[in-house]
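Entry 14. Structure prediction run on the chain below.
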Amino acid sequence: MIRRQRGMSRFLQLLAGAAVLLLAASPAAMADDYDIVEVGVNWGSQLSHQLLPDSVVKMLKKNGIARVKMFDADPWPVGALVDSGIEVMLGIPNDMLETMSSSYGNAQDWVNENVTAYGDKLKLKYVAVGNEPFLKAYNGSFMKTTFPALKNIQKALDEAGVGDTVKAVVPLNADVYVSPDDKPSSGAFRPDINDLMTDMVKFLHDHGAPFVVNIYPFLSLYQSDNFPFEFAFFDGGKNINDKGGINYDNVFDANYDTLVHALKKAGVSNLKVIVGEAGWPTDGNKNANLKLARRFYDGLLKKLAKNEGTPVRKGKMEVYLFGLFDEDMKSIAPGNFERHWGIFTYDGKPKFPIDLTGQGHDKLLSPVTDVKYLPSQWCVFDDGAKDKSKLPGNIQYACASGDCTALGYGCSCNGLDEKSNISYAFNMYFQMQDQDVRACDFDGLAKITDKNASTRGCLFPVQIISASGRAAPALLLAALFALVVMLFV
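Output returned:
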């Protein structure tokens, strides 16, 4: 399959590169208002309406963000990162692990199409093979394919002549290691995957690649009612005493050092560690809000700026914030907060003041520019409708196909009255369907209005025009240009 698609993938890369040239003809990159920062960001793509990648990259440069971690290798956003100077981690999704593990040729093709094809124009540093593949919730689905895929990708990188500068890694959830007594010094890899993890970390060590781990203090708080609230932050009051008189005043450091001890037990005590994801959501749960998110980021960034490390692993830390934008298509199986991790809103606006350099000079980040919106209209409940018997089913449908995660207990729209609750559900579906008039019917229970339905601190958003639709003319020209290149070069 990979080999048969190779020509088409190469065509898409030519198309993306040409599109970047065309789109870049409009305003050049703006001068940075911020210092270059060491912290990276995760750029996800599970949005119903995408922002223009070229505009997102301009925003990253404007804010001095020098590192980006992605979850796939989509040539459109990757093409926008070409010649940007931004360091990139590309991703291979979990559903491709079987393909990459079963055939070395498939791994070669992936590297040729997504790494060497860009030459030195893409500042590629890592290839993420899978994403949290050993998560307990996956019930071992990727247990047999992840390590072989990692080895094949690294071998392909080496044979392509880029293995010294581009390393294959596996971003892992913190649940791959445990501590029986909750002391970091007791940290070890999970018994069911200990042998596999030991072999894999030794491979990473031998090839000069780091261990990438995702650490979420918010989830520690979410998953246990008994978890000490203040311990989730960096200015908290609870302390944990470990062996040797080591003291921990926050769960981030304790979690990180639990991994360090697990690595030591596996025989690779000096293996570099990168935190691939760390963040705090702003909605979808009683503890997911702007105030607490700002508190978490302020503490984390100030800590990183000091280069103090943790009690066991001193020095500079490499961390990627999660995430860049809210993503309204993410699964909410783990919790409604999953769609609200962004430090920017769905339309590229900063949510709260922050200083990515960790110096405490908080101000709003520069937003994504050149964002176009659908008309200023909303779909709301028509309380004049005669037959309301079908209301429950229509509300359920609107929430299942749209996004009602802000309506839950303790969330931003929790205080709405019954009518406004229904209107919110209807409007979210309507907006996600590009304001199609047929998406505001609901068996005659809804109507379209030009009066802003936002109320009591609850935003009823107007959706943006998706980048895929806006870019169609430019992409068509890019396709023609790419064809000329393929035919005559």
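The CA atoms of residues 10 and 113 lie 6 Å apart.
Filed with the rest of this week's runs.
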